[in-house]
Amino acid sequence: MEGSSSDGLVFVRLENGVKDLARARLRDGAVEPLGATPDREEDWPYWSDAAGLLLLQVRTPDAGPRYDLVLRTPSSGAERPLAADPLRDEQWPMWSPDGTQVVFAFLGSLRATIVAAA
Questions:
Q1: Three-state secondary-structure class, residue 17
Q2: 36: exposed, middle or buried (Cβ count in 10 Å: 0-12, 13-18, 19+)
């Protein structure tokens, strides 16, 4: 995935009971998968032109209902956790208006986190 948010739409696709991310290119409607992750669910993708990153919510079945937030570099597929706190259920992510920081809600930890993504 290269370019800006106006080049395509990232969405969650459900196939055979597995949620994965895909991108639809606006210029021709072609759909391309953004990686297959049968070992986890991927939800709530948000792109930031300013950071050049995709923010998403992930859940692995062995973690129960708890979600983690990760940042993905689309060109390489490299990921890093937004905040490392295994006790926390992180949800409802959103980019700041300038696209360089992330705000989110969480349960399970008293420690607040301010994250600069770029």
A1: coil
A2: exposed
What pLDDT shows up at residue 71? Answer: 92
pTM of the model as a whole:
0.75
Q: What is the pLDDT averaged over residues 22-43?
A: 83
The full 3-state SS of 46-115, as one line of letters, equals EEECCCCEEEEEEECHHHCCCCEEEEECCCCCCEEECCCCCCCEEEEEEECCCCCEEEEEEECCCCCCCE
In order of 30, 32, 61, 85, 98, the CA distances from 10 in angstroms are 12, 10, 23, 27, 20
Largest CA distance in the chain: 47
For the stretch 35-63, pLDDT in tens is: 777 788 888 888 888 998 989 888 887 76
93/113 Cα distance (integer angstroms): 13
Give the span between the Cα atoms of 29 and 37, in whole angstroms. Answer: 23
Contact 96, 104 (CB under 8 A): no
